[in-house]
TrEMBL record:
<feature type="active site">
    <location>
        <position position="127"/>
    </location>
</feature>
<keyword id="KW-0443">Lipid metabolism</keyword>
<dbReference type="Pfam" id="PF08545">
    <property type="entry name" value="ACP_syn_III"/>
</dbReference>
<comment type="similarity">
    <text>Belongs to the thiolase-like superfamily. FabH family.</text>
</comment>
<keyword id="KW-0808">Transferase</keyword>
<feature type="active site">
    <location>
        <position position="261"/>
    </location>
</feature>
<keyword id="KW-0276">Fatty acid metabolism</keyword>
<dbReference type="InterPro" id="IPR004655">
    <property type="entry name" value="FabH"/>
</dbReference>
<keyword id="KW-0963">Cytoplasm</keyword>
<feature type="domain" description="Beta-ketoacyl-[acyl-carrier-protein] synthase III C-terminal">
    <location>
        <begin position="248"/>
        <end position="332"/>
    </location>
</feature>
<keyword id="KW-0511">Multifunctional enzyme</keyword>
<feature type="domain" description="Beta-ketoacyl-[acyl-carrier-protein] synthase III N-terminal">
    <location>
        <begin position="121"/>
        <end position="201"/>
    </location>
</feature>
<protein>
    <recommendedName>
        <fullName>Beta-ketoacyl-[acyl-carrier-protein] synthase III</fullName>
        <ecNumber>2.3.1.180</ecNumber>
    </recommendedName>
</protein>
<comment type="subunit">
    <text>Homodimer.</text>
</comment>
<keyword id="KW-0275">Fatty acid biosynthesis</keyword>
<feature type="region of interest" description="ACP-binding">
    <location>
        <begin position="262"/>
        <end position="266"/>
    </location>
</feature>
<keyword id="KW-0012">Acyltransferase</keyword>
Amino acid sequence: MSASCLGKSARSNSGERASAVIAGLGTCLPSHSVDNAALVEVLDTSDEWIRTRTGIESRRRVTPETSTLDLACEAARNALRSAGIDTVDGLVFATTTPERPCPAAAPEIAYRTGQGNILAFDISAVCSGFLYALATAGALITAGTADSVLVVAAETYSRIVDPRDRSTAVLFGDGAGAVVLRAGPADEPGALLAHDLGSDGSGADLIRVPGVREQPSGERWFTMSGRKVYLRAVDRMADSVRRVVKDCDWSIETLDMLVPHQANARIIEALAKRLGLPPERAVCELARIGNTAAASIPLALAGAVTTRRLTPGARTVLTAFGGGLSWASTGLIWPQLAAVTSEV
């Protein structure tokens, strides 16, 4: 989008200020799968221990030839195919595992997917990154800065997780997901109705990768204080979901589907119980792909759409909790669309 287009007032066909509407959904997974049996060979663990504590049976991992960018670009292309369009006005990319600290990856994703000289930037909010990016992209549309935005999340946690650490090596997988947002009326299915975003820097050390100054030499692996994270994740996501449900003028009882960050099955089960939701109303797609951090919500959405657990018209809340500490939730009526998925 040219600079002359910036600042235009986004309007729906009725003339009202536009909302941001989800119009396309795409994902990409590495084709290489690592099951629990493969991890049991190198870790002091068992298939039963992994399944009962995480709900994970296998996870996808990239080969050395595949980059975070490769996954991101393929997911972005698939989202565009799902939306039936070729180009957008902007791109927001969420990741904790970029190929490099500088420059941002979003402009290269835009270039590699044929978007031209559009606005493009990265967001880092760990597992909350997709929802932070979704809220930011939605604000670009409602402000009139863009009429359409790609929101992409991609992770290759297999490159930052210590393969000898049982507490993290069994959890994480690689993958990417993306949605297309476009301007549309607030009462259209797919419109983003409410957001709740928050953070608590007092817990910054609970989920972290040491920096160069902290650890100038040697290995710098991802670490997580599992029990403390579990307790805070359930508390913060439950409160955040309640706020979004209230802002949407719904009630928990009328919520059709909860799509949480796919951390582990125990957190998802505890969150549903805390909210008083039947377990079947909380999407859990962990078994075959594991925890994919920022990419987990779009991947979970695609899985739920493909299996028809998530259907058009469903009152839906997306929620996440991650490093920072950070959390986020978004409410919408799920639209009619088909997810486009692929592997690399």
